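Morning!

As promised:
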Amino acid sequence: MSKLKPKTPKGMRDFLPSDMYKREYVYGVVREVFESFGFEPISTPVMELEKNLMGNYGADAEKLIYHAKHTEGKEQLALRYDLTVPLSRFFAEHENELPLPFRRYHIAPVWRGERPGRGRYREFIQCDADIVGIKGIAADAECVSVVYAALTRLGFQDFTIKMNTRKLLTGVGVYAGVPDDQLGELYRSIDKTDKIGLEGVAKELADSGMAQEVIDRMVGLLGLQTDDKDAVLAHLQAEMGHIEIAQEGIQELQDLVKYTRAFGVDDANTMLDFTMVRGLGYYTGPIFETVITKPENLGSVQGGGRYDELIGLFRHQSLPTTGISLGIERIIDLMDQLDLYPESVKQSPIHVLVTVFDDNLLAESMKLAAELRNAGVSAEVYLDPRKSLGKQLGYAEGKGMPCAAIIGSDELAQGVVKLKRLADRHEETIQRGDVAQTVQAWLDQ
Amino acid sequence: MSKLKPKTPKGMRDFLPSDMYKREYVYGVVREVFESFGFEPISTPVMELEKNLMGNYGADAEKLIYHAKHTEGKEQLALRYDLTVPLSRFFAEHENELPLPFRRYHIAPVWRGERPGRGRYREFIQCDADIVGIKGIAADAECVSVVYAALTRLGFQDFTIKMNTRKLLTGVGVYAGVPDDQLGELYRSIDKTDKIGLEGVAKELADSGMAQEVIDRMVGLLGLQTDDKDAVLAHLQAEMGHIEIAQEGIQELQDLVKYTRAFGVDDANTMLDFTMVRGLGYYTGPIFETVITKPENLGSVQGGGRYDELIGLFRHQSLPTTGISLGIERIIDLMDQLDLYPESVKQSPIHVLVTVFDDNLLAESMKLAAELRNAGVSAEVYLDPRKSLGKQLGYAEGKGMPCAAIIGSDELAQGVVKLKRLADRHEETIQRGDVAQTVQAWLDQ
């Protein structure tokens, strides 16, 4: 047979066991935090009907969508591009079984045929939590809080959750006197503040023909010091409170600040950022974005906000919805970089290698392993008796197992086992019935 | 906007939270059992290069494979059809990082465009555990043992793991004098024993022109009583030991019996079944299949066996490999049917609904929820203060939450909380600092 070439598709990855333990740990912590707030897991098919995906993301994005079909299939399918349109479809399909408010989380892969690059993949995990059915900003505050709780539980300390609202952005435009048809352009410019600074934004707007007076009024607001959240919101209130949309935005941010505090979010980890826009067109209210700030600005690990129209895609009437997406792929990378994984994740979950003396004693090694497992200790039997004891111990060390148990004919006759701690080569001869207990004691050290 | 129709693709399923809790429980138990034997998790992309999948499954199967591509993509991709070819590809691609023996498990969806039917889906989860690099039957016995351990841990009692080997099947053919070119047909007939009985098989073979004497010799062997495994293997040894391939097969089954016993597998849950063939062409040695036997024969929940050639697909030289696949979708259905889920899985994982008295007290409810979470109790805040207390409690009951916490202005002033146990409507007024502890005590009852 002509051999096939072992190769993963471009931009897609295999994960080895050592990767998997880390990923499962992160998913596990996040799941636990989500569930502690009342978010519940759902799952949807990897593929959706093609016509339900196309038309929702814009032409550029849609070029990246994977289309799929089997030879005799009649349905045109497409692999999901995100977890948000599937949520809308899911909700509409099952709403009779879903009491409101409906909080769901979904941790699952999505596919985008982008040019692969550092940290950019064609298959990657998204991790979304959303609340459907609550108009009040309490829901947005809960989303911010769940991000705070998840990052804190994972061990991150130096991060900032930036908060803004689309309504305030619109209000700023109105206040400054930006004509309606220039609002989109205004947002696109403001969105670049991170990269080019407010002066850069001002210059760009001036180049585009916006009146200098308008620009000055706006940049003055966008550049306000926000360390004292209550003070800056009071200032905005005085300045722009007469503009209805601005007033609504200010009230949203006041509620967001009040409720995140009630949820126990440390004020030092949140920030009002009036220049934060977030690209996606579908946001209608508060928006959030989280960056890891130390040892340096390591980029965004979370995005989200309120999108009150999207659930209406598959439904006569839309429902208020707000949510967040954790950038779990980047979080996983940062966990390594910042050394946040607990020791238990770095070690092998296999506690003991039971070595094999020879063919005749193989069954005895299996019995010992079964005894250990029944006592709650995970135990792998080395199944190849032809390999030397040294080779077998080397295998255990290579895989990071903490202990090895040796049972030869002498040990068998005496009812004992030689137990080796591989880190320091400490060895003890132990009554067979006490092996599990000793392993447990060594693990707890 | 014209509304889209909320519809999942044919044969593909959404899972609601109540489904997900059950599925996650089953995956969790299986993962734990796999890891306790030293099997390690891996993950591969959902899509493989099309040319790496096609040509491995036969023409009929290949019609069912989903082909995928994004608009500007150059690679022709296909969604995986099983987890075995991806294992071969994965192993060849990473073998330098994978010490032998390599035990991996993989729980992940696969796609087949079959006609959907009862228990047959186009997207379904496979759950495979395999050992690469061990020639000895000890590895096969470990695979049988891990099936036994997983089913037992899930609560199944009445199941039978049938064991046979391809070598003995060949040996029976040689012994009976079946011409080589009729062996394939012979297997196909024997494979029908479950449905048409040995008499039916005999008739079919006679109709196909096989000599009656040959048929009689064979049916005599296939129909041997196998209750006493050691006795029947000794009988086969005396009868067929002179035929080399039969001798090898008998030795394999002797080892399988000896080693599964050593691993602690109850002899009552295993059976030698000389008529068990298993369809897949790639098996080369021992084969296994598990059926749930009570309250009636509920069908197969596991298949597997040794396939020493398959790893060679992507590699100059093949390596001995054996493995099992748990029919996790059917297991999940049977768990419900046999009522095997523990109470904790049937209940909501959200312990407390913190109700909301009015807008002014919403922040107080959030604070209480945060206090409970910090004490390890999961707590959902009802975020809509306009809803009556009755509606809020109804929501909690509908979702199966065990408790509700009520905090109004009186309770706030007195530093207490009204805690309600929803199952029996028992209510207590409790110091705020003691709420978590009381919830925990009620949960433990």
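Chain A touches chain B through 110 residues (CB under 8 Å).

Hope this helps with the figure draft.
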